[in-house]
Amino acid sequence: MSSPARAHRLRVEAELTAREGSHQQTLSGSDQMLMQLSEDLRRLKGVQSTEKKAELKRTLLPKYEPWVTGILTGDGSRQDDVVMHILVWRIDAGDYHGALEIGRHALKYGWVLPVRYNRTTATAIAEEFADAAQRAFTAKQPFSAALLTQALELVDAHDMPDQSRARLHKAIGYALRENGQLAASVNHLNRALELDSRCGVKKDIERLGTQLRKASNG
């Protein structure tokens, strides 16, 4: 864990970097974060379990918080690869609000994910949120429909494969179903089916349609 003084210095340097670009006086913080990221990526590479990787990311994220906060506060348009790694890590670690915060900034300025992720930023946000929700559903746990809807609104204007957008609509449909919002659930599941006829929601739509008809008949 960073000391308060070090955290403050990193946040200030990140803010300066975002506002002024790659001036010499701000390079030390950026270099320091890139070196830290490289070290932590090596640590993660040595972990095979997806669950344990997520746990490790949760312990690593606080080290990057001052830098990310400074970059976002500075509202800089220059790509920051550290921040883009943290976008994905936050989703993996369950910090969905934090991920959306970075996602808004990244999409505003056209930032791209590091090559290792092999997807556009919007596609990754859609797929990663959908996958996180699906993991929760598989574990019989709830997932916030509001968070998924925020993710959908964030990526709505951006191009991506239809199948990726369908996954997000499907996740929203399931989350709404768990909340008892059956009509809204059907709308999202139908949209998922329009985008991807093989997304596996036909039976769910039929069952929900039957429930809605029974409810309307009293």
TrEMBL record:
Which domain of life does this protein belong to? Bacteria
Please give the organism: Buttiauxella brennerae ATCC 51605
The keyword NAD appears for this protein: no
- Specify the protein name: Phage terminase endonuclease subunit
Single GO MF descriptor: DNA binding
Q: According to its UniProt record, what is one Pfam family this protein matches?
A: Phage_term_smal
**What keywords does the record list, in alphabetical order?**
Endonuclease, Hydrolase, Nuclease
Q: Which InterPro entries match?
A: Phage_P2_GpM, TPR-like_helical_dom_sf
